Amino acid sequence: MFGFAHYDLENQQTLNRLAANPMQFIDNNAQSGGKAVVTWGFLPDQSQISIVEQFKSSGFKLIWLDGNRQAALDRFDARAKTKSSSKAEYYRRMHEFYLQMYRIETSKVIETITPVITNPFDAQGQFKSAEELLQELRRS
Which DSSP letter does residue 1 get? Predict the structure, then answer.
């Protein structure tokens, strides 16, 4: 999309390539001339923060999608309800959401990696279009 190669680290195969040799994965993608996008909902622990910092030192621009957390919760909740096959699975998914939010706050990961922060939601709590987000990011 938009002429970028996308590497989704929530895809197990792609994550395995990163885990096997983080510097090789990062170097291979850094050589793309600024046309690689890596998305990753990583756990903010020291080992994963270290990998994110390697991306940054290799020339990647770090972007953190954050903003209307109530809207994020609402979207996550709706998705969890439709994707869960039982109440137990739904509660597990919601527990994971709250646990991740707790980890983000207590780890101070945003302050540590100093990304560009972009709100993915509009004033009504709806997701902005990819075009809108790209325009905002190009201005930052």
Answer: -
- Whether the pLDDT of residue 56 is over 90: the answer is yes
Nearest to 76 by CA among 127, 118, 138: 127
H or E segment at 119? none
- 5: helix, coil or strand? strand
Which residue has 């395995």 as its token pair?
16
Cα dist from 136 to 4, 47, 65, 85, whole Å: 16, 30, 12, 37
For 63, phi then psi, to 5°, come to -125, 130
- Using DSSP's 3-state secondary structure scheme, residue 37 falls into strand
Q: What is the DSSP string of 82-94?
A: HH-SSHHHHHHHH
The structure tokens 């999309």 sit at 1
Quick check: 1 pLDDT over 70?
A: no
